Amino acid sequence: MRIALAQLNATVGDLQGNQRKILSALKDAQQQGADIIVFPELVVCGYPPEDLLHKKYFIQHNLQSIKEIARAVKDIVAIIGFVDSDRRKHLYNAAALIHDGQIKSVYHKHELPNYGVFDEKRYFKSGTQLQIFMVGGYRLGVNICEDIWVNQSVYDQQVKVGIDLLINLSSSPYNIGKPAARQKILKERAQKGSCFLACCNLVGGQDELVFDGCSLILSPQGKKIGQGRFCQEDMIVLDLDLSQKKKKYSRLSQSQRQLICSEFSQQSKPALSQTKRESMTAIERMYYAIVLGTRDYIHKNGFEKVVLGLSGGIDSSLVAAIAVDAIGAENVVGVTMPSCFTSKGTRSDAGVLAGNLNMRLIEIPIEQMRKSYSVALKDEFAGLKEDITEENIQARIRGNILMALSNKFGWLVLTTGNKSETAVGYCTLYGDMSGGFAVIKDLLKTKVYALAHFFNQRHRKAMIPQSIIDRPPTAELRQGQTDQDSLPPYAVLDQILTGYVEQHKSLDQLVRQGLDRNIVRRVIELVDLSEYKRRQAPPGVRITSRAFGKDWRLPITNRYRYKK
Prior knowledge:
The protein is α/β, with parallel strands linked by helices. Helix 6 crosses helix 7 (about 315-325). It has helices at about 15-30, 55-70, 145-150, 155-160, 180-195, 280-300, 315-325, 345-355, 365-375, 390-410, 420-425, 445-460, 465-470, 490-500, 505-510, 515-530, 530-535, and strands at about 1-5, 35-40, 75-85, 90-100, 100-110, 130-135, 140-145, 165-170, 195-200, 205, 210, 215-220, 225, 235-240, 255-260, 305-310, 330-335, 360-365, 410-415, 435-440.
């Protein structure tokens, strides 16, 4: 059997665009002599479609699309993810098995995830049927994403009756360590079922989610024999000798056994040449996932150019580098907005960085605007010392300038705040939080430095000037200011945030790790009190298992505090 996995970058709601991609992949697979082609979960409508599923006409257009695709399926079996609907108008996360221009059968997903970023029980009904599909005399088990992750699920039933090939349609989003975890569980499933296993995963950015691809084909021994590219569209085509797997199987009932086609196409098949996939480090994966998430958010939402405040600091430098890699230097505009507190070093570094990246840099001084605010407010503020109020005014002036450029030229504003700052509220509403997309929103400060080093190593020179990396982080909103005036050292802060935000650890558990109780208590208080800010922040790329977004659903009005 020659199998093809079409690892596509589908866009939610772009039914026509997704259909074109599917038909193009079908044609490609047929030209390569594939007997079966597998597509990702819900590829027809894109994943996750969320409340589009409440729109009846959206469901109908999705059904119309799968029927149109079916008519183009000749001399090949196609397994395609779509939204199915029954007579009672119940919706199902489904896979259509198509041959000779007809939808021969439909599988409904059994296990509906309802944790983290997933909310499938809000929309779908669970499938109940155990189906084994006969293709060319071999037994195929088909299931969808979560079905293969859960023990005592439909997967176990499929393995129990016996299958030659298990096919999993997936839309499994990336987070740090996820590709390795996914490969581990799939290896265990192939070995337990003593069957070939093919998992076709979605690729691309969708709002805050990034789907990394990394589709897999495994042998019955769990050996990886084919893999899709990381964060790129790909087509994997392999010949599987299913005859080596033949054995005595349990008898199937009439309802369990469904014939899709009796034999494979006898057309001559061109020889296959497999491309070796280079392995990537965790830092590389993290970087390219953010690049993909940024590129797709920009392009899928109809933008061509972006603008960001380029302060000469590490965060804005990394965001600029990512943006240039995502959409090209000619489409990235940096704006430096110096005040009387801006040092010559940061001002100079912003220029050097822009030159290194070959991107446009605009300078708009804000000192006169800052002074005009002081004049306007002098009567109301008479007798009061300057404090965070005046600092935030500067941030809001800069935010206004960036939004003015956005409105005038149609550029998307990229914000430059990282996860460490967002977690503890070290950011200004309507100031540095103003914008349409938060590129490094889920990146702790220590990881910002790691990615900056990676970017320079990849280019084999200091594209991000070493002076930016070495300089103590500062917002430069008052004379001599550094981040550590208000926050613990980032190495300590990030350790606390990893434990409290991402691992749900309590104050006592963190203290037992050797952290200072008073520092931990203060950080936890800052995190808990900053929810109102985070709720108003733009979306950003999710790279951890608990990002500030769909993963994080705490009430803004919340009086619960850890007592010890």
